User: Fold this.
Amino acid sequence: MNKILLGLLLGAVLGAVDGATAWFTPAVRAQLAGIIVGSTIKGVIAGVAAGIFARKVNSVPLGIVFGLAVGFVLAFLVAYLQHGYYLEIILPGSIVGIIVGYATQRHGMTTATAR
Amino acid sequence: MREAAEVPDLHGTRYRLLEEVARGGMGIVYAAEDEQLGRRVALKVLDALGGEAELADRLMREARVLARLEHPGIVPVHEVGTLADGRVFYAMKFVEGQRLDQYLQSVGSVPDRLRLFLRICDAVAFAHTRGVLHRDLKPANVMVGPFGEVLVMDWGLAKILATVGDSDSATRDTPANLGKGSGAPVVTGHGRVMGTPGYMSPEQARGEVEGLDARSDIFSLGALLQFAAGQKFRQKERALEAICDKACAPEREGRYASVPELAADVSRYVDGLAVGAYRENILERVGRFYRRYRFFILLIATYLLVRVMLVLFYRHPG
Assistant:
């Protein structure tokens, strides 16, 4: 699987799972569907960004750092817009970023490009 | 009784003798300078003066074998001829580097050793597609250059399974079919038992020259694999042990049918995939999956742990 597609799919799955865990927070359970959709989009953006980065830079440590940075920034924006739940959103969101950053570097295939 | 080796007379050639590099069964290898091109070359010169027509013939044949094997893993021949003193010689690329056994002392990582082994397989597989069996594969006959390039050396015992010049039919041979066609075999070694104990296949040790095929070299490659992997590591890794056992099966029917098949299994092992030579149980399969995706699994586990901790310790009232 190529790096961008892997990042997209992994980001989507992890984002959806991440969003679904909001069910354990009764205060936001009513908005669960919206949270899952938003979290999935966040995961997709992080995954695609990590995939594009992995195509340009071939380094697992840099991929992890990039994934962490993208995951952190996106999670921070979501938490900022929600005016709360910073730790619950930013900490797992950053780990999701690390996971897609690592996976796209380590397990994604490089596709040949004509120049 | 062979006459004592003398310094070769390079008069009338383009080479200037530098030093003796190595001694083999039929020739001495010298470092020389090609004065026309200004580069270092290796000269393999018959170590007897005149007389030994059979040895001269073998050296010529070795040069011709090498000439048909143009591959990055096989040392190229530049020229073949006869010196002023009557000795046959051939000039080849001067390989600077270490013998495999010496080089491996500085390579601790088993996957790196196996990747090196795969490059040896590439060269041997190529020779097989050209209808040539090496018949003396061993660590001393593999050189590793300063940039990690691998060169299979000393084709003096090679057996040509297709007649020289019949390159088309040799190319069409699949390794599994080697020895079954392509005209009358031309044999170096003249049917005697030649090779190195420990690396020589049982059929080669029995002197069954006519019946040798690619699987004889596969036995030698299996012995090389055992050497490269190291005994302690093989005992820990059943899959690798099974690959070695299959390559070194006493009966050739039990071995891999071709070098690419052996290389593919080693490659799968290096990549953490299941190998064809070993049927693993469910625990071993899980263990291999874990080893292959260890970091990824740990990341997912960390994520789940963090999530559980957050749910347990950061509950917000509904």
About this structure: DSSP finds eleven helices and eleven strands in chain B. Confidence is low (pLDDT under 50) at residues 163-190 of chain B. The CA atoms of residues 22 and 186 of chain B lie 27 Å apart.
